Amino acid sequence: MTAAMMTFPLNTSDILRSAALRYPKQSIVSALPGGQRHQYGYLDLLHRTSQLANRLSAEGVEQGARLATLAVNHYRHLELYYGISGMGAVVHTLNARLFSEQLSYIINHAEDTWVFVDPEFLPMLEAVADEIPSVQRFILLCDEAEMPASSSLKLECYETLLADQPTEFSWPRLSSDTPCGLCYTSGTTGNPKGVLYEQGSTVLHAMMSGSSQYLDFNEWSVAMPVVPMYHVCAWGVPFSAPMYGAKLVLPGAGLDGESLQQLIEDEQVNQAFAVPTIWLNLHNYLQSSGKGIDSLKMVGVGGAASPRALVQTYDKLYQVYWMGIWGMTETSPLATAAVKTPEMANMTPEQRYELQSSAGRPMFGVEIEIFDETGRPLPHDGVTRGNLRCRGPWILAQYYRGEGADKFVDGWFETGDVAVINAEGYLRVVDRSKDVIKSGGEWISSVELENAALHDEAVNEACVIGATHPKWDERPIMLVTVKPGKLLDEARLRDTLQQKVAKWWLPDAIIQVEDLPHTGTGKLRKVELRQSYKDYLLAK
Amino acid sequence: MTAAMMTFPLNTSDILRSAALRYPKQSIVSALPGGQRHQYGYLDLLHRTSQLANRLSAEGVEQGARLATLAVNHYRHLELYYGISGMGAVVHTLNARLFSEQLSYIINHAEDTWVFVDPEFLPMLEAVADEIPSVQRFILLCDEAEMPASSSLKLECYETLLADQPTEFSWPRLSSDTPCGLCYTSGTTGNPKGVLYEQGSTVLHAMMSGSSQYLDFNEWSVAMPVVPMYHVCAWGVPFSAPMYGAKLVLPGAGLDGESLQQLIEDEQVNQAFAVPTIWLNLHNYLQSSGKGIDSLKMVGVGGAASPRALVQTYDKLYQVYWMGIWGMTETSPLATAAVKTPEMANMTPEQRYELQSSAGRPMFGVEIEIFDETGRPLPHDGVTRGNLRCRGPWILAQYYRGEGADKFVDGWFETGDVAVINAEGYLRVVDRSKDVIKSGGEWISSVELENAALHDEAVNEACVIGATHPKWDERPIMLVTVKPGKLLDEARLRDTLQQKVAKWWLPDAIIQVEDLPHTGTGKLRKVELRQSYKDYLLAK
Questions:
Q1: Cβ-defined contact of B212 to A195 (cutoff 8 Å)
Q2: Is B438 labeled as catalytic in the residue annotation?
Q3: Is residue B504 flagged as an active site residue?
Q4: Which of A19, A72, A350, B1 is paired with B429 by a 20 to 30 Å CA distance?
Q5: Is A346 helix (H, G, I), strand (E, B) or coil?
Q6: What is the mean pLDDT of residues B370-382?
Q7: How do strand A427-432 and strand A412-421 relate by DSSP bridges?
Q8: Per the residue annotation, which of A291, A407, A434, A438 is the catalytic one?
Q9: Between the CA of residue B157 and those of B35, B115, B139, B142, B166, what are the distances in Å?
Q10: Which of B339, B301, B338, B299 is nearest to B317 (CA)?
Q11: Which domains are present in chain B?
Q12: Helices (H), B214-344
């Protein structure tokens, strides 16, 4: 029997063309440096993106070429997302929080030929200029008047590049597996690895993640991705929001509470997306300023565990639904979410907060499962911890250039997370598998211990790692930095911990340190610490 | 560069498994004969569908085999949709309104091996029993107690088939182009042609048509497809509603106003889908009974032009949003819809009704275009009429067994409709291209003339066809049947027409007839009438 339906691969350019047809005047608002705002509609976005694509074509940019961006969330970055991917090249988003050795490593690994850069990040490129021979063009994301007076690099102006180009472009029809985006993992162990997104996977991810199963966008949505476009594609919101006609509010570089409150109020933002710290800072600002966020109805929160107290605060003080989410660079990135359900209306607040602070359930198209060390699936009982794997059409099958092949097992992607799943399918990530402490055959979550320690008034940051133990193989030890002007009281800290975790989880040692090492994206460098402290308990 | 994302084709079984995980207790309510209601949840649906799939596998049903259904909308039919397609076979929905010669033609053309049939439709099969040698099994959709006492056919009972089968099934992972459904066109010209749906096209259609761009389903939806599951897959609602967690209300055979009002009220239906006649009948019932439909918020209406007066009635009397839609068997079937937009809040009621009674705009994934006779695209000015074509991943590329190849042109499907598109992208279908009257190089819409005639109090039905004319090539003539007890006043009818259409559209002859011929699905058989009346104006 012959297949009967059209072979018609959907492309990122279809998202933009559909948005320009259905929602031509829906706004894209960008906060620019100096408090300025830029505003235009989806039809304008299509026209300028077409100009960009025409210019790239005229310059001979080939299908599959990697063109990099180093920029915050604004309309020009959005034009690059669509213009580069739409004409068949690969938009490689460089993380602005990278250290320079990682930046040059990644640019070389990707063999980027162009870099589009915000003026504020130009010094990062100047610092590695001698180490990135593949880069032929440096394009400043500004107009002529804003170009830097001088630079060690030969700079071009983005607006000049676009000027005089036709506002229509003949978008190619690209196969589903044509690469369209590239993003590197943060590399807590070893070198960063590249995740190459495809036309088909990107469109499918936008279709489902923008639906009522996840971000729930429609023409009444005013969506603000605070999560950066320079990392994990701002959770795909630059694709899903236009697909479903949401107004987009791009916050630029101002991610402090005051800037965000102002944007939310001015633009009547009703859905916003960020890591927990952003929402803590906004809450603190609202408390000190007395200002409000009346338009805001939901926040999507991932990238770190959702603190229960903050979920409650956003519910009670601001009537904002906190939706816990989970995903990774390797999952496009959205996979699971704690969406609001009709059943929640009949729950106690505590029951609701429990669900909201979880990672939620997989959306259609994603499967998740937990496995033991031998690869057997584990029960979904809300208690049993296992190695989390996932699969689906927008989940990675191999890293760029074939690295990290051990992460792909039996058709699954090995996330490196340790998680529990309950009977209703809700996921709770409890730790990274390399960070979990294996004590006498049982697992102790470093993350849960670290979170518990933050309830002590003196603790600034805590880091829990496993140290070798003669009897239990490993036992947890806790390194803490202390808040300025506070004194660490170990007995009090142990009391605090004991209220939150099982007694046998309590660390064998609590050690005050001056500093804790972090990666460019703010994660603890536990590999180094484990190395330094591995014999600590043996020596003790 | 190698593709990097998982090759993971999504299947109809994924929809059911996801629904059972995310919405295990969400209800499926079925109205059964005799006023009974059946109710269970999506997890129950998965269990029973698994039993069915296990049984079909045990019986040796092979991938690609065509298993037919002849049934109204109820839970067993839903189990067949998922069970047959999920295990890799093809669910072939037989239209219960077919004449017997068409029924046997279609069964033979498809080479169906099993037929699952509602007891009420058994006589249709008994009548053609000698003409359908491919059918080996006749399964009655009822339990043992409801089995007919005798039949010329060897009958089996559906419930007996399922009994004792395991409630878990190992669903195969099927390639995107695996056929999963088959539906025949109504065949107004020539024999019906088969449209073979695929796993991938069916899932994509459900993803987008269930989203806020179209049917707008979520866990608060209570969706009632009145449009039959035995034709155009009930607009795909059996797939899109479970995907997005809607409660499903399946009305069985009772499509009269009283039955529908009762179901809407009892089950708190808020979204329902049917052709205009259904809504006219419901309105008439509500007016005569004084009953209400308070829970209903929107109706999706297609299959025929939306009468403006009814759009207004549903708005003003019932506060129901009337959403005009357009699609065909060949388009899976949904393509365009007049979804509610924020802009409508600032329109006059008349402006809104104009949009609501149109066919709306294409959802993401579907492209539409109008062309002249030479294949050149025409302007979107809301006035220019052209031949409507469409394309996209759930649009047909070839009919079953390669028939009707002339309908596929330059990568487009030639719909056979004549339409206008306005500057905002809204589609209005004005006629079937074979029915349009070409008078002096200009086009006259038979449908618009027919609709205008219905405003005359004596006209029961009108049919407009083109008759050969020595000067203008063709001119319209109108055949009318008259309501019982009324008299046709031709002068009054001409006055009525003149208020609705341009003067040069007025028919050259108005002819009262006793009867008008119809197809099995209720469409006018214009081919025959054109043949009979082609020389009418020459002879006159």
A1: no
A2: yes
A3: no
A4: A19
A5: helix
A6: 96
A7: antiparallel
A8: A438
A9: 22, 12, 6, 6, 18
A10: B299
A11: 9-24+42-215 (3.40.50.12780), 365-432 (2.30.38.10), 437-533 (3.30.300.30)
A12: 237-243, 257-267, 276-289, 308-316
